[in-house]
Design brief:
Elements: H1 3-23, H2 44-58, E1 60-63, E2 66-70, H3 73-79, H4 82-88, H5 95-104, H6 106-114, H7 120-133, H8 176-182, E3 197-200, E4 208-211, E5 216-217, E6 221-228, E7 243-250, H9 261-275, E8 286-292, E9 295-301, E10 306-307, H10 308-313, H11 324-345, H12 352-367, H13 384-387, E11 454-457, H14 459-462, E12 470-473, H15 482-489, H16 506-509, H17 518-546, E13 562-565, E14 568-571, H18 573-583, H19 595-607, H20 619-622, H21 629-648, E15 694-698, E16 701-704
Helix pairs in contact: 5-6, 11-17, 11-21, 17-19, 18-19, 19-21
């Protein structure tokens, strides 16, 4: 082989080696020598700062206390999860600690984060200690205890919850102050369906995102229109939306002798908690009672239609044309209000009045040869359908009725200073008994029924398309003012505490006697009569009626509905005059019968009646006394049933002449009549005068004997 051939062969071998190196298949290294690319773990300090920024951005400003911030509960789960905690804590953090933080220590962890005083290593040490001592979110908020950080020896440490022993560790020494200060932002309460009373720590932030700038300021409290954050309530009707409420803040009133705000709040919340169990459609629903240190609040559902007074004022000065649907709505809602009163009044049948009425009925039955037990309507246990959250009666479909009530805001009127309260006969309860029977049964009364305390809920809250919506009785827990106001009431020369316009005559004529449940019947009679005046004559007619107060003989004791002379009460000439004139109105004075006329006669004959049942009365005498809620409900149901039947027959019982443009209201009474001596009162002129416990001065003028008058 020549030298040239050898060079060519060597060149080929070199090229083949090169080709093998660059184009040949590369083999992977053996499995035992393969390594994953290195992952760089984020810096825990950077992750902690990032979490803190997101946390600060999640805070919401509260309106109470103004300017304070709170963290909505829904944000906690968004901020604290396994992946986040894994990156914030040091790499040496065990899975058990991370699980504890994500399960039972989310709020604890976030309080430490927002304080900006704990490093990742501090957070790990503290959370390990919390896990060891079983210190969880359930133990928040924590009181300020002097033994934080081991500053005091064990024998000097104050008694506290065992889980709080975690604060004895020295690692809390430099971060405890911020922890106790910041925890208020994380413990805003959630208004639950099955919880009413909330005992909160001083400085707690309420989840109130907005409140009206102009609250109603009363003597005993201030009431705000407010909104609860959507994450802090459980009202399904407003899921994902803020809940509008009426927030009542009680005043300390340290300058008022005999008044204690703590006692007042306890009395009112106890009464509301019990009454709330009735679940009646026409009783306003209290949502929560909150005590935040020295501040006391009660939260109610918001009446977006306003009060009945505001509804009347919205109707305009002139009367509207009569509409059968509107009149039927009024009858139905008044019947609902009376049904709520009957439920309130009907929880106890062992009162003195109940015994009097039952005994009189038994005597009448025995005289007829048999033992007759007449059920007392207001003493009967409320029917099942009335205790549920729907109307106590089956109402016709009036959805076609136009709702022309404008959007107005409620004015939560503070109870008058001579207020009285719901009562219970149980002497161990915090609220006082209505009567002196030693009975454990409960019964209630309102004591301050008036248009301002009857609120309107429109269609959005009640699914009621009628123009009147649903009317509910408000101010249900007024026990706070009984002792204080009763003492002031006796001073009739004090202008500030003069008689309420809607109070029954026994409020003035019999200060030494207990109030009865029939006190409310007089008040609802006044409201019903004024409702009829609004329907027939508009606001101008009602204003003309109110102007009659100028001719009262004694402004300190007399109202438009009764007058008192030497502790003797009778129906006023003003009320008698207006009732007589209304019954002479073309709408009421017609042969075919009138629903409004029947209602006015019911007010005249059974509601605005001075006399109350007492001992030794016979049934014929008791039947002429003021009605109870059960009887009133029955008679209103009869009027409602008659209206339903008449409407189905195409009758005109609800209204006859729709146009009211040329119908003038009753002419005002110019001067009060002289004291009656022999003339009979139209309001009960047949009442027998044989009662041994009554001193009869004039017709319908009675002096009550202490100890005998019971209802």
């Amino acid at each position: 082989m020549s030298l040239r051939q050898k060079h060519r062969l060597s060149f080929c071998y070199c090229n083949m080696g090169t080709m093998r190196r660059f184009f040949g298949r590369r083999r992977k290294p053996p499995p035992d020598t393969y390594q994953e690319p290195a992952v760089v773990r984020p810096n825990p300090e950077e992750e902690l700062r990032s979490l803190r920024r997101r946390l600060v951005q999640s805070f919401v400003t509260s309106a109470l206390p103004s300017g304070k911030e709170f963290l909505p509960v829904t944000e906690i789960d968004k901020l604290v999860n396994y992946a986040t905690i894994r990156l914030v804590l040091p790499e040496k953090a065990s899975t058990d600690v991370i699980d504890f933080v994500c399960g039972h220590g989310k709020t604890l962890f976030l309080i430490l984060v927002v304080g900006n005083e704990a490093s990742p290593n501090d957070l790990l040490a503290i959370m390990e200690s919390c896990r060891k001592h079983n210190m969880t979110d359930e133990h928040l908020p924590v009181d300020r205890i002097p033994c934080v950080g081991g500053k005091l020896p064990c024998h000097q440490r104050v008694a506290h919850h065992k889980a709080w022993d975690v604060f004895h560790d020295k690692l809390w020494a430099h971060i405890s102050f911020r922890f106790f200060q910041d925890q208020a932002m994380f413990t805003a309460p959630v208004i639950l369906k099955d919880k009413f009373i909330y005992e909160l720590k001083e400085g707690c932030v309420l989840p109130i995102t907005w409140k009206a700038q102009k609250p109603h300021i009363g003597h005993f409290s201030t009431v705000y229109e407010a909104e609860v954050h959507h994450a802090h309530h459980q009202d399904d009707r407003y899921f994902g939306e803020s809940l509008k409420v009426a927030l009542k803040q009680l005043k300390p009133l340290t300058s008022e002798p005999g008044y204690n705000v703590e006692t007042a709040w306890n009395h009112e919340t106890s009464a509301l908690e019990e009454i709330n169990k009735l679940h009646h459609k026409h009783l306003i629903r209290p949502l929560a009672a909150l005590r935040c240190g020295l501040e006391h609040y009660i939260m109610f559902e918001w009446a977006d239609g306003g009060s009945l007074r505001e509804l009347w004022e919205s109707q305009g000065p002139e009367p509207k044309d009569l509409d059968p649907d509107r009149i039927m709505s009024v009858i139905e809602e008044v019947l609902g209000i009376v049904g709520a009163l009957s439920t309130l009044h009907g929880t106890n049948n062992r009162t003195k009045t109940g015994n009097v009425v039952r005994r009189a009925a038994d005597l009448a039955g025995m005289a007829a040869g048999e033992r007759l037990t007449v059920p007392v309507p207001h003493s009967v246990k409320p029917r099942e359908e009335e205790t549920k959250d729907h109307s106590p009666i089956t109402t016709p479909d009036t959805s076609k009725s136009p709702r022309n009530v404008p959007e107005i805001h409620v004015r939560f009127v503070e109870p008058s200073d001579d207020e009285v309260s719901f009562r219970s006969e149980d002497p161990n309860r915090s609220y006082v008994s209505e009567e002196s029977d030693a009975s454990s049964d409960e019964h209630w009364r309102h004591g301050d029924l008036k248009p301002e305390n009857i609120l309107q809920f429109n269609q959005s809250q009640t699914n009621d398309s009628r123009w009147l919506g649903t009317l509910k009785i408000a101010d249900l827990g007024l026990a706070k003012q009984h002792v204080f106001a009763t003492a002031r009431r006796k001073d009739m020369t004090n202008q500030k505490f003069t008689t309420s316009h809607y109070e029954a005559p026994e409020a003035v004529a019999n200060l030494h006697l207990p109030r009865s449940r029939r006190f409310d019947i007089w008040s609802i009679g006044c409201v019903i009569l004024e409702f009829v005046i609004i329907i027939l004559y508009g606001n101008d007619g009602l204003a003309s009626f109110y102007d009659q107060h100028k001719i009262r003989e004694n402004p300190h004791t007399d109202t438009l509905y009764f007058t008192v002379d030497r502790n003797v009460a009778r129906v006023s000439d003003i009320a008698s005059h207006w009732i007589a004139e209304i019954l002479n109105d073309p709408e009421c004075n017609r042969a075919g019968g009138s629903a409004l006329a029947d209602i006015v006669r019911l007010v005249r004959d059974r509601l605005l009646v001075v006399e109350l049942p007492s001992e030794n009365m016979v049934p014929s005498q008791i039947s002429r006394c003021r009605a109870d809620a059960g009887e009133l409900k029955e008679k209103l149901e009869a009027i409602w049933g008659k209206a339903i039947h008449d409407e189905s027959q195409g009758g005109d019982y609800l209204c006859f002449r729709k146009d009211r443009a040329n119908i003038a209201p009753p002419a005002p009474l110019q001067v009060m009549k002289p004291k009656r001596t022999a003339a009979k009162s139209r309001l009960g002129d047949d009442l027998l005068k044989t009662q041994p416990n009554l001193e009869v001065r004039e017709p319908y003028q009675y002096r009550y004997d202490s100890g005998k008058m019971t209802n």
